[in-house]
Specification:
By secondary structure, the protein is an alpha/beta fold. Helices cover 43% and strands 19% of the residues. The chain has two domains: 174 residues, Rossmann fold (3-Layer(aba) Sandwich); 146 residues, Rossmann fold (3-Layer(aba) Sandwich), CATH 3.40.50.2300.
Length: 329
């Protein structure tokens, strides 16, 4: 390009009206939908949103500059999941972040073409969200919650913390793969630990009746497998029943320990949200969910509530304290 051509080019660029420049900027703006299972005012929400948005920033995506994020908050209501899934799809986003299988299912009912990145999703193959872990094959991929064998680890940890434990009630949903397989993993480990296992259903009346009947005998404990979204409304009930009947209990997610539960062991949820930003970045740059493998957790966290342990008359072994990622006093 010679000098005359360069000046003509610069002059033409300068002549672009502001409205046209703004239109170009809008065309460069990418849109991300996010459907969360929590309420917007849930105190755990910032612990998940912050690492996700930080992960995007580290990859060059700035809210209001080159991306827009539309959040919807389902508040553990499956009807809301379906409603907001349709709303987000109608906004024609470039990609949607989803939490848990029930939300992925609602989004796939609304669209089989909008890319979906999921986090903390149990058994995405068994749930039908992807065709396979290595090659998902559809419009969804992401990060699974845990391997089913982790359920056996919960029983081992509970036995270490409460050595007198000889019986354990397992709250699980037998109609979903995670509930059946998780319960099976606990059953497989139980004989070696000399622990008898009792299943408890996930409906409110089943939980109240099952835990109360189970607690009539001594040396019992409690394990929550999941939890599926249908169980979310009863989480505080489960914590209350464990305290009322003095049952040592272990949960799959940290928030239940911060609300009074004894112990949790599971994937670092915040880390999954941060990693999801990487997959969303790759999709925004042209890759397809069908070609991005579903990834297992890489970070797990053990959390213990010392106040609850003291109330149950338990002494936390030094070996468990040394392994704990967080101790709530």
């Amino acid at each position: 390009m010679n000098r005359r051509e360069l000046l003509a080019y610069l002059g033409g660029a300068a002549a672009i009206p502001p409205s046209a420049a703004r239109a170009q900027q809008r065309e460069q703006m990418r849109r991300i939908g996010v459907l969360m299972p929590l309420a917007a005012d849930d105190p755990i929400a910032p612990r998940l949103v912050a690492p996700f948005e930080e992960g995007l920033r580290e990859l060059g995506w700035i809210i209001g500059a080159n991306i827009r994020i539309d959040y919807r908050w389902g508040a553990s209501d499956t009807d809301q999941f379906r409603k907001y899934a349709q709303e987000l799809v109608a906004l024609a986003p470039d990609v949607i972040l989803a939490t848990a299988g029930s939300i992925v299912g609602a989004l796939q009912q609304a669209s089989r073409t909008v890319p979906i990145v999921f986090v903390t999703t149990i058994d995405p193959v068994g749930g039908g969200w992807v065709a396979g872990l290595a090659r998902p094959g559809g419009n969804a991929t992401g990060f699974s919650a845990w391997e089913f064998s982790l359920s056996g680890k919960w029983l081992e940890l509970l036995k270490q913390l409460a050595p007198a434990l000889t019986r354990v009630a397992v709250i699980r949903d037998p109609t979903v793969p995670a509930g059946a397989a998780g319960f099976g993993a606990i059953q497989a480990v139980a004989p070696s630990l000399r622990v008898e296992v009792t299943p408890v259903g996930v409906h409110t009346e089943e939980i109240e009746r099952g835990v109360s009947e189970f607690a009539r005998s001594s040396n019992g404990g409690l394990i929550l497998v999941g939890p599926p979204s249908s169980l979310s409304r009863d989480l505080r009930l489960i914590i209350s029943l464990a305290a009322q009947h003095r049952l040592p209990a272990i949960y799959p997610i940290r928030r239940l320990v911060s609300e009074g539960g004894l112990m949790s062991y599971g994937p670092d949820t915040a880390d999954q949200y941060r990693r999801a930003a990487g997959y969303i970045d790759r999709i925004l740059k042209g890759e397809k969910p069908a070609d991005l493998p579903v990834q297992a957790p890489t970070k797990y966290e053990l959390v213990i509530n010392m106040k609850t342990a003291e109330a149950l008359g338990l002494t936390v072994p030094p070996s468990i304290l040394a392994r704990a990622d967080e101790v709530i006093e």
